[in-house]
Amino acid sequence: MAKQHGVPVTVSATRDHGIDGKVIDVAIRLGVLALFAYISLMLIAPFAVFILWALVLTVALYPAYSWLAAKLGGRKAISAAIVTLIGLAIIIGPVAVLVVSMVDTLQGWYQRISDGSMTLPPAPPGLADIPFVGPKVAELWQLGSTSLEKAATKAAPFVVPAGTKILGTLASLSGSVLFFAVSVLIAGFLFVPGPKLASGARRFADRIIAPRGAEFVDLAGATIRNVSRGVIGVAVIQGLLTGIVMVAFAVPFAGILAFLALILCIIQIGPALVILPVVVWAWSSMGTAAALVFTVLMVPIMLVDNVLRPILMARGLEVPMLVILIGVLGGTLAYGLIGLFLGPVVLAVFYELVIAWVKIGEAEVAPESSPQTDSISDQANQEDSI
Description:
mainly alpha
């Protein structure tokens, strides 16, 4: 028993005070660390989506950057600039073509309406017999067949709200294009320090999930590259082929339709919503031979993703293809376009974690069951000897 200020103190009490002091010290340190982490996350939160997309683009495009740098004799900065410019052209180019095409089309319509050269054919028979809307549409059609300008003025109260929604959609599309352009620019600055960033990510993951943290980082990178090839790459191929065939057959608004097909392919809906109506239009507007050739070309383009996507997405991965597909579809439905990459990455890493956990459990059970197996075998040997 010790004395402190003339008061007897037991050794156990002193030890308890020491443990409490250590617990309080650890709690204070964790609290300060959590405060700094919270403030840091709040500071980067406005840029988190940009940074996340930049990381995805860096991982997806790094093989192309590495190949180009090797071809240019190790000029990493020039290679990063070229890949960035190509990425910006791919993102901004189709939108610029779409805007120019729409402006030209609208100007042509306005010019033809103003000089009276654009007229409507006679109304289809039976249009006025359609319940509710038939008579009004027939009356408006009849007015448009004589003067489109008067018909447009009369239909303005109904057309203006739809036009407002279309303009809102175009503004949203412009914002998305600007967002991706900024993400591509950020990714351009990450190509050169990419190996150091990947090494740091591996070390950080090892601290969290030792000793397989680095493997999970590599798995995430491989999954992102495979998803980008299997989803984005196939979507670009389908959109490009759709545009080429439609332009070759002089389909109206071929650029707009190809862009819509590209967007539908990226969001995993597929180009059928664009291609099938165009095929129906082809059989009603083209000759039989031309419509047949057009259909023979467009149907394989519509279905090619069902063959290419599984091959490209499963290439080099030990994770089952079903896990990747569920991650792609579930991530897209839950988190939008960024979920297209986050979904398969999270599911692939979680799948590997579960498999590793099961294997560790089996390894722990095996030594415990081996003595019983040995005793059974010894008993069998004794019975045989008897």
